[in-house]
Write a structure and sequence with these properties.
The chain is mainly alpha-helical. Helix 4 packs antiparallel against helix 5. It contains five helices and two strands.
């Protein structure tokens, strides 16, 4: 869906705050395709089905900055979701002290992003 938004091929989810990180990128379509390529690799590693044809493989790898505060917020958000959805996975990741971001992202100093919707 995010790729379709960036390609202006849908009217839904056009203002989803997470998309702002891609919209700010000078090469948003390269970024989303790179992002999806890593997701596709991970899906394959986990024996999940992911349609490779959804990715435009001529992308150039790029980097998008993500603040340390945003990354921390997203980890806590994930843990809160897992509390109800998958307590076994929550227990499994509770011993992880450092979470590595997707290779698209470069961690920089800073708080939660201004586009994030917090409770």
């Amino acid at each position: 869906m995010a790729k379709h938004v960036l390609e202006e091929r849908t009217k839904g989810y056009r203002n989803h705050p997470q998309l702002n990180r891609f919209k700010k990128c000078p090469h948003a379509l390269h970024a989303i395709n790179y992002y999806l390529s890593i997701v596709q690799q991970e899906a394959e590693n986990r024996n999940y089905i992911f349609d490779k044809n959804k990715i435009e493989w001529s992308f150039e790898e790029c980097k998008i900055p993500v603040t340390a505060g945003q990354l921390k917020y997203e980890v806590e958000h994930l843990k809160n979701k897992l509390l109800n959805r998958d307590p076994v996975k929550l227990k499994e990741i509770s011993t992880t002290s450092v979470f590595q971001p997707h290779p698209l992202f470069t961690v920089v100093e800073g708080d939660i992003e201004d586009w994030e919707i917090t409770k």
